[in-house]
């Protein structure tokens, strides 16, 4: 399954009549240029799951940082890392 379809399903499966009114996810571009992804985990079964930070910096066109802080998965990367960020989230959820 492609990661976009997978993330849609993950979102749908967490919508329970309450969660989606308080929490959710954001995918947006940043100006360095790159991507930022925020996925709120509060009131999901992943809220307390340990996430090992993923980070590398090989210059302006090859960098990535993913971590969980305060119940939010946060992924940031260069302009070609959106799929990689979502794949990291999916791999963590499915492990």
From TrEMBL:
It comes from the Bacteria. This is Immunity 53 family protein. It comes from Ohessyouella blattaphilus.
């Amino acid at each position: 399954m492609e990661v976009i379809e997978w993330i849609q399903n993950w979102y749908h499966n967490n919508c329970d009549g309450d969660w989606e009114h308080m929490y959710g996810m954001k995918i947006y571009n940043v100006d360095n240029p790159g991507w930022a992804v925020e996925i709120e985990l509060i009131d999901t079964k992943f809220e307390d799951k340990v996430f090992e930070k993923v980070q590398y910096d090989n210059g302006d066109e090859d960098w990535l940082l993913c971590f969980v802080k305060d119940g939010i998965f946060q992924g940031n990367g260069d302009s070609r890392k959106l799929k990689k960020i979502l794949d990291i989230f999916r791999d963590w959820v499915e492990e």
